[in-house]
Amino acid sequence: MRYLITFAYDGSKYHGYQKQIHDNSIQEELETALTTINGGQSVSINASGRTDAGVHANNQCAHFDLDISISTEQLKKALNSLISGNIYVKSVVEVSKDFHARFDVKQKEYIYKINLGEYNPIEKDYVYQYNKSLDVNSMKSAIKLFEGIHNFKSFTKANVETYDFVRTIYFTDITVKDNIMFITFIGTGFMRYMVRNMVGFLIEIGEGKRNILDVNSVLLEEDRTKAGKTAPAEGLYLNKVIY
Amino acid sequence: MRYLITFAYDGSKYHGYQKQIHDNSIQEELETALTTINGGQSVSINASGRTDAGVHANNQCAHFDLDISISTEQLKKALNSLISGNIYVKSVVEVSKDFHARFDVKQKEYIYKINLGEYNPIEKDYVYQYNKSLDVNSMKSAIKLFEGIHNFKSFTKANVETYDFVRTIYFTDITVKDNIMFITFIGTGFMRYMVRNMVGFLIEIGEGKRNILDVNSVLLEEDRTKAGKTAPAEGLYLNKVIY
User: Fold this and answer.
1) pTM summary value
2) ipTM strictly over 0.90?
3) Which residues of B touch chain A, with CB atoms under 8 Å apart?
4) What is the DSSP code (8-state) at residue A133?
5) For domain A107-242, is the CATH number 3.90.226.10?
């Protein structure tokens, strides 16, 4: 039976989503628990995509196959009892054998959080602390220019082995509530560092270091060196995966 | 010169406020930084009181004396640059030589946070996760019975070397917002585990295991074994110290 799970995690407690030698990962913790549930037969999970070290998820998704028969409710309970409190499986559903958590993704939603207020130690790993003032209206105008179909090479990790840099962004939004800025992107998919690079660019616009229309010109350059800094991992949340 | 600082900390990163051998503490981290600022001459700080391992502070206060001359603004900057991001000094003021951060406390405010909604991994160390339903109205009625002058021996750590268990609670409140219950106590002072024991008792009332009026009868018993469980540390915040 193939299962699809939706889960949240505290990215600050891991070296990233993907399994790697010597470092703990979210994938490894889930696979270890699932192997136990599967009677010791090893289980591999396929997520909608990886997240980098320090990046959080409110709703990440992954599929896997089990040899044993177990109800979705029992599976949810068993999984949550075997993993640490740094990950939480929110739902488990059965899916067909041809479902794939990565290839079947229709849209993804990312949210980036910036604290514009006083530094709070308990939020250290969960929000980007920004102490200078930002022109929110410029940022709100600029983010709209990312919407649509674009080549995002300027906003992707340099030297990635990708040939297709074209992605579609359907929706963007910036709101500020209680001194926290929430920057939302919904799109077909996001390449490595893409959201953090767009956020870094928007911050430079908010600082007045760049103009709103620079979004258009830098997209057209298709050159990573033309864009701004990468915003830090702690503010980023994979918020939703839509199939 | 004597200084009074107000600071916030993430209690989950320490073994408690007070200095102890082999374990990191908030006091030690601040004293190490202050000793550096004081040109290597050791500095001892006196807080309004200690907090236990895992308990957070939004606004803890402490005083100390420095041999050197430094402005309050410079001192705030220097301190925050020398301590980790798990503590943040929010303000520094000069006080008279007879001011004492512990003996001059007039009131303290504690807030206890309970998450009644879905478990969230990134809130693991910052809120008490409670998965059963609670009768909030009973709890709201019961908490009012803690107000006033009472002997709180039933709600204090057993076997403490204290002879005076009488304290005054001026104000209490319970509000629920977005599935988070906030329980507030303002009083002259709180003994060890006192807030967490009162919260544990209120939860048992919310669960229907005890009656509202049990607050009165258990206060009168003056016997720790008659009260309920101690609520866990992660939900507790020292929110304010009033001089």
Assistant:
1) 0.91
2) no
3) 8-10, 12, 56, 85-88, 90, 118-122, 124, 126
4) -
5) no
